[in-house]
Amino acid sequence: MHLLVVAAIAAEAAHVPDDVEVLITGVGKTLAAVQVTRAICEHPHREDLVVVNIGTAGALRPEVTGLHEIGTVLNHDLSAEPIRRLGIDPRERLTLEGGHGTVLASGDLFVTEPAVRDRLAEEAHLVDMEGYAIALACQELGVPVHLIKIVSDNADETAHDWSAAVDGCARELAGWLADFAG
To answer: Does residue 161 have a pLDDT over 60?
Structure first.
């Protein structure tokens, strides 16, 4: 197995060991999809590549805390129903092999509004901005993927305090990664 760790920003991967390959995508689904697709297509060990996306996420429900391996990821800012009515499958929901029951909603919207959070909480436990794109790129290219997310905020006005939480989150993510790679 050749491990490629993917994070949106360097702060989320700050404690990943130097001997582990890390890809920093930038924020949002578009950048994540392009960067991960390029990295997979150009990777010299593509045949045994495993992608692990580590990152922070907002909790959509008060009881959701800590670290989670995602089992389902949703593209939450896609108009899926109108597309489906046209007879097209928008593939807004992806199931990940080996994942757990945690559902992640991904979108380009930085969620801080309680009404948006509450609507997303009807379908998901966590929210981020890259997970869906990373999972889709990996599935399309036949590369195993794990999405590992840690709660950094409550997807409300506290999300603006994200920078104060990111280092502690990065340490816990690196600890999970050490166990996974070990």
So the answer is: yes
pLDDT at residue 111 in the model: 80
Q: How far is CA 151 from the centre of its chain?
A: 12
69, 147 Cβ separation under 8 angstroms: yes
Q: What is the 3-state secondary structure (H, E, C) of the chain?
A: CEEEEEECCHHHHCCCCCCCEEEECCCCHHHHHHHHHHHHHHCCCHHHEEEEEEEEEEECCCCCCCEEEEEEEEECCCCHHHHHHCCCCCCCEEECCCCCCEEEEECCCCCCCHHHHHHHHCCCCEEECCHHHHHHHHHHHCCCEEEEEEEEECCCHHHHHHHHHHHHHHHHHHHHHHHHHC
The residues that bridge with 5 in the sheet, in sequence order, are 22, 52
- Specify the pTM: 0.93
Nearest by Cα to 65 from 160, 5, 154: 154
Architecture (CATH level 2) of domain 2-181: 3-Layer(aba) Sandwich (3.40)
Structure-block tokens of residue 115: 């009404």
**Tens-digit pLDDT profile for residues 111-142:** 878 888 889 999 999 999 999 999 999 999 99
